[in-house]
Amino acid sequence: MRIIGKSVNREDAYEKVTGKAPFTDDLSFAGMLYAKVKRSSFPHAKLLRVDTSKAKALTGVHDIATSNEIPGKNLVHVVIDDQPLLADGLVKYIGEPIAVVAAETPEIAEEACELIDVEYDELPAILDPLKSRGEDSVKIYGEDNIFAHHKIRKGDIEQGFEQADIILENTYRTPYQEHAYLETQGMVAVPRFGGAIDIHGSMQCPFYVQQTVSDILGLSLNKVRVIQMRTGGAFGGKEDVPSLVGGQAALSAYRTQRPVKLIYTREEDIISMSKRHPGWIRYKTGMTREGELTAVEIEFIFDSGAYSTLSSIVLWRGIVHSVGPYNVPNVKVDAYAVATNKVPCGAFRGFGSPQVIFAGETQMNELADKLGMDPVDLRRKNILRVGDRTATGQLLDHSVGIGKTLEAACGKADWMRKKEEYSKDTGETRRGIGLSTIFYGVGLGAGGKHLAKTGAYVQVLKDCTVQFAVGTTEMGQGMRTVLTQIVAEQLGVSYRQVFMMETDTSRVPDSGPTVASRATVMSGNALIEACKPIKQTMLKTAAKLLNSRPEYLEFSGEEIMLQKEPKAKVAVTQVIEECHNNNENMASEGWFVAPTTSWNAELGQGKAYFAYSWATNVAEVEVDTKTYEVKVLSITAAHDMGKAINPTQVEGQIEGGSLQGMGYGLMEEVLTENGRIINPNFSTYIIPTALDTPEVVPLIVEEPFEDGPYGAKGFGEQPLMGIAPAVTAAISDAIGVKLHELPATPERIMDALKRKGEGK
Amino acid sequence: MITINFKINGTGKELIVPGTATLLEILREHLYLTGTKEGCGKGECGACTVIFNGKSVNSCLVLAPQVDGCEIITIEGLEKDGELDQIQEAFIEAGAVQCGFCIPGFIMSAKALLMENPQPTREEIKKGISGNLCRCTGYKKIIDAIQLAAEKLRDK
Q1: What pLDDT score does A760 carry?
Q2: Please, which residues bridge with residue A39 across strands?
Q3: Which of A249, A281, A510, A515 has its CB 3.0 to 4.6 Å from that of A300, i.e. a possible disulfide?
Q4: Global pTM value
């Protein structure tokens, strides 16, 4: 292939290194106003009075909207319809939006927010997720504060534990994680002719924003157009919550009939936007003396915050991934998403899996220890292979690369030798090595079947360039580049001749969200569909030029040639010109629906996802035995993504995801006090810097997926998912401490050692 | 309001701005140089890094009166006559760009570093960009890019 599998430079790199790439805050329109959001100061309170009179009197203020001023439905639809755009008589978390101000400058808007007088009647709040389900707890959602309960029942769990020679049971805790995308949330809403409105903004899911703006304004969908600007990182944090930002900007713009810009401050973004769910996980594993898994029983709770948002499907992905990439005959899983009076949690790279993977992989590593078996050998005994069934009973018939990733990562990291060498460390700093093996269900799966579709549009122009559009978005992950490569390869043109138009809801039909590592597979396949009729036309035209028949011809590089006589050929550019001269239609649409999935909710059995990607991570650390500071020396990460359409972009995903996973494992933690986030900035919420970077060694394994474009599967989330347990296993290997709580800060390591009776 | 005179990307400017305006606001809102980004507004992320009298600074922490009489280079000042700076070229070639929001800041920090130390070690590069946050790349290809830029400078 000419372009697939090649590390061509990113399609958008030039505009990004020159500062020309247009992000939301770079937009301006004549007469534009600036919006600010007034937010709740209490975790749970009745709103007795929202007095906007003083704020309205301020010079330069054009509009203040509360829930009373919403012309349509006061609703941000995600899964369960429980979340208002603006609080209506009741607030359920600190930072919940109450009113939107539009003014001539951001400073005036901010001052007006301070002048809005809100009278609260404080109610008791539920802040501890473990108490949320209790009978005497304050009820903030339904009768039991449970947004969702998902389960798996496979085999006979009691029999499974009876067959075990060894049973290990532990409780794990994982923290909130903040996305910390560098560009905060932002939208610009612009009123248009005919009562329509355009929304420009930073987002993953334009069709979600379109729905919310339509609901809020009471406008039909055909009058709401959403255009994605360049998006400065997302990681799941711009999946559902941009609907709030878009709805707020749209409300002000609609009421003032002026363009309105709304850009969140960093602090506002951290206190009010979604996070990774904190997890509490009780994990019980049964194993034979020979190291074969006989049973896994898990109960876990996700602290979901004040509204249900995406929690139900985050929890669902959590259960499907909770048992790990292993053969386990007997499984019982119960998982609960519970309500608390805190910021609503939502999507974050891995989507409910990193929490349970930390628990499950730590179990595997500790079991290996107990059995005196090498953890790599323990994986070799239990990992899934072609012909095996997952914990949800899904038969794996192809594209199972876990074994290859295990051998690749452990081979490259020189596991055996390092394990031996590090065990001899006796000094003040000790080294250790640890691993994790994981899998990832690609796409929305059975939990999101109704959204598992995508559209594409392709047009070949008379100057032999190509433009295309899709409904999925670029947020940094490299989708524009990969899809441009696919279109260029398909149509026999050069990579530089192809241009992707910005994602815009008016260009292609609703294509679902850009989440679940689905863009390459879904939009890639839709584009291949869109190219088909155009290629047919080109073959027909080339046949005339070559005095042959279309079925005897094929694309070869940037030419079309006779299959049996390669010398008889014509340049693709000449064919395109001829097509235009003959008034052929050189534009086409494509549509792709994901392969079938299925789910039995009672048993938690079914074909959960249409494909899985696989990975093995090996982490090496150095631990200071006086300060308990951990330095990660290296992460060797082997990933099977079916086909690396652009290997450099794949490496970029592995390197970036690994560091984000290292942050989750060692340092990142959103702290709350009485429901208030107390570290809402980058000097207190610490993410890794260049000085924290280990040597990340990315390894590519390709086990093609037959329904993927050129064999590709999605994998963008996977690089983060298994890093934390590999790092904590390495710490454990270095100093013999068991870590069941993240992040593994020096304080936690010291506490864990103390509990073990070895601390100082 | 105060009047300030300064040099921006080689050109002299006189502006009347509020005394409380930050250099970041002056660049973005008065000069429409939107390549410099705001990530936090508090000097914690480095997205707004520019070169100020030859040193890299967070432009969100510099106030208008300090700008008077100074020389400033922003990301827009690097491309000359359609030719990219070696650092920009290297960022493209090394695959150092993902979402791109932090990239202008990184390139300006790299520029300041290479102006002072044209052949830095990998550790010196890490230190030189430690005030800039990136959430996408894991920094590896950014460090590679700066090393590559240093090589390009040496071979020039």
Answers
A1: 39
A2: A97
A3: A281
A4: 0.98
